[in-house]
Amino acid sequence: VERTFAQPLLDFRDEVGATDRVCAVGGRTQWDIGRAAGAAADDDQAQDVREVRPPVGIVSIDPAEMLTRVRAGTSIVELNDALAAVGQFVALPLPTRPFAEPDSSAAATVGGALAIGYSSSLRLGHGPIRDTVLEATWVTGHGELVVAGGPVVKNVTGYDLCRVLVGSRGRLGLMSEVVLRTRPRPLARQWFSSHWTPTRLATTLWRPTAIWWDAVLCWVCLEGHHDDIAEQAALASLSACDEPPVVPGAYRWSLAAHQVEAWCGALEPGSFIAEMGVGIVHSSTNRADHPNASMMALSEPVRRVHDSLLRAFDPGGRMNPLVGW
Amino acid sequence: MKGASDSHDEPLPDALRRDLEAAVGVAFVKHSALDRVLAGRDASTIHGQGACVVLPKSTAEVQAVVRACRRHGRAFAPRGSGTGLSAGAVPCGLPVVISTTRMTAIRLVDVVQRTAWVEPGVLNLDLSNFVAAQGFRFAPDPSSQQSCSIGGNVANNSGGPHCLSEGVTQSHVLAIEVVMADGEVVMLGGLDPEPVGLDLRGGFIGSEGTCGIATAIAVRLVPLAPAVSTMLVVFDALRAGAECVSAIIAAGLVPGALEMMDHNTVVAVEPFAHAGLPLDCAAVLLVELEGLRHQVAFDTTRVSDIALAHGAREVRLSSSDDERARWWKARKSAFGAIARMAPDYYLHDTVVPRAALVGVLEEVVAIANRYGLQVLNVFHAGDGNLHPLLVYDGRVEGELDRVHQAGAEIVRASVAAGGMLSGEHGIGLEKRDFMPLVFSAHDLAAQGWLRNAFDPDGAANPDKVLPTPHSCGDVVHLTRVPDGAWV
Lengths: 325, 487
Fold this sequence. Notes:
The complex is a heterodimer of chains A (325) and B (487). Helices cover 23% and strands 22% of the residues of chain A. With 325 residues, chain A is α+β, with helices and mostly antiparallel strands. Residues 1-5 of chain B have low confidence and may be disordered. Chain B is of the alpha+beta class. In chain B, helix 8 (238-250) packs antiparallel against helix 13 (357-370), helix 9 crosses helix 11 (321-332) and helix 13 (357-370) packs antiparallel against helix 14. Chain B contains 16 helices and 22 strands. Chain B is 33% helix and 20% strand. The interface between A and B is large, with 85 and 94 residues.
């Protein structure tokens, strides 16, 4: 098939070009994630990296298909506001990191969230971010627009490059437009607190949307029919609360879910939030004896596959070159 | 490494056979003519030839087999239960067929964290049955779930009726131990939710055996729902049924399953399943809602209201587990029942936007009429995943050719309506040459980069998924579907 692309995508492709080093700029809410220490804007290494801004705008919302086509530079808040009008939402996270400005989460973009690949803190119920992308259009290091997946909710036509793109930090190319899976907004949502252990809550409640734990209390998010929420809350003796605690943004670890309780024993109770049943720990303090996994943690054959993919999609190493894992 | 269209002087040279026997034991290297014929087939109409079939029992044995293949310059083709419908497991170019049917251990079940480690030969339904007593299931449920393997589900990113709300295999696999094409054993993904680096796990799932062989799989387990409501919705017009599907989804309802059977299917299955399906209907929808009781009751009323507003003649709510089981038997056994109509059938699998269901269904009927073929539609309507089923008699000269021509038109009609080639069966050999219908040369090159990153020599299941400039000379089309094929 000979594809035809909308003009903003062609313009973005031309802006990215095929020769020099470029990085995509979204809302800068997660700007330092994966960025090598010292690679600040005034460093020599960073000076020849040209900043480009992905196209912006909601192309379509189709509630009967449960999907939306959106340009990568679009604000997540704007997208979810538009989806709310048809009773739906996308499971994209707003950044949990400390913001330069109190309201800067509104600047977070679809493309930025997908490039970073961090899932929402409601992942237990809403699923991982990688499951939201049905189709992706991006500019590779060759300067060409490429499409993976398709605009349908179920699809096994060819290799699943969409999954590989999510969390690729722009290293396989710069996201231009995506088709995302949407979900119906629940009839009701309520947060609760509980002194029960996370395990007791997990084995008592039926598919909670979130169980957060800080070694002092648990917070539980339940969604669905309000009578079901009330019954579940009574079953687990939950106490309703207005808001969940603010998730500490300074540090984030990914652990196997069964390791979380023991691992958090080294953290000060109350200084962290662990997403139980998921394995993400957010903390205001570092655990210096447990640095986050780096590429060095991967086996040599896996790194070989990794490197081969990066070389194929971006032979010049020019896409988001200051960002890695 | 010899590719699929390269010739080998003999199917199984003694030196290769000896190395394979050293890897898995003499008893587990099968190379009789019958063994090779059986391993040359899946549930499609395409047939190939393997050098032999080996049956390793462990990751180490799979690794030893792959390494032996590499030493002898021979490709290999992974094989699960052989229930695939797109010829993904059909060997091209005399590869060594590596069957995972002896790797059937459920290694670990953690009901607190809702995960299980399984070997690739574990049958889909066996896992669900194994964890059912503890209140869990493995969500992907292909109609072949009694006989398809979880390794095959990973290879094909398989779906099933209950994937509408739960997602397909990709959403239920956390980590995969893989023997790659160079014989290295790697772990892709992990039990931690955000493993470092690119999501190679996601790239491997659905790669149809072209990126290596899964030897252990960590899957998510889904808790069984406390309340289930199953409805049979009867329509006098196919169009009304299809429009009802879109209306249900647009209303914010995501049933556990939303399946459609057209008139021809109902007529075929009812004498077989005795499910009480009305023989004079144009179509029925099977709608299953799962969850907590108040939500299920609320949604049941909403589905009923929407259905009646869209011209449903009748909305039946299952009154017993027995009635529900019979409805599902009718749906899942549809393809066995079709044997009463004609000796053979060819099943297509395309996916279209739900809004296009009506138009494409009408076009499918028109195409079948044009070719003088009878068509039945039984499919995952909630996902827009069509399964037009063309029944025919392979003994009639030229009939299969007409089936193939009609099938190609159905694929093109689906693509023209904004759809894709496959919703759940995969590309394999069957749809490989249709890939340029939906992907540009740049898109296909990018997919090739993924495959090459895993297997630069093309040693794993060669010539599948992506179009190649040469044909697979030893592959032939059968005139009929093998007995026992599932959908």
